[in-house]
Amino acid sequence: MPTLTSVTPTSGPTAGGTTVTLTGTGFTGATAVRFGATPASFVVNSATQITATAPAGSGTVQVTVTGPGGTSNGV
């Protein structure tokens, strides 16, 4: 199961489009990255890093990674 340990940067414009680096473990085979309930486009760089593009939205949301073993903890 993926484990998410950090999200950088931790904030961005409400219009979205910010490139966000997700760090953790178990990212190989990731099938989804979500910012709250909204799916994001992403690229798996390695088993420990994903680059995602934040979708438009406002407020603080939980970021999660879903893979073959389930969905990560939220950060």
Content of β-strand:
over 45%
* Strands side by side in the biggest sheet: 1-2-5-4-3-6-7
Identify the CATH homologous superfamily.
Answer: Immunoglobulins
The secondary-structure class comes to: mainly beta
The major sheet is characterized as: 7 strands, antiparallel
Low-confidence stretches: none
CATH architecture: Sandwich
CATH topology: Immunoglobulin-like
Shape: globular
Q: What is the β-strand count?
A: 7
The proportion of residues forming helix, as a percent range, comes to: under 10%
Order of helices and strands: EEEEEEE
Q: Under the CATH scheme, which class?
A: Mainly Beta
Distance between termini?
15 Å
Any idea what the radius of gyration is? 11 Å
H/I helix tally: 0
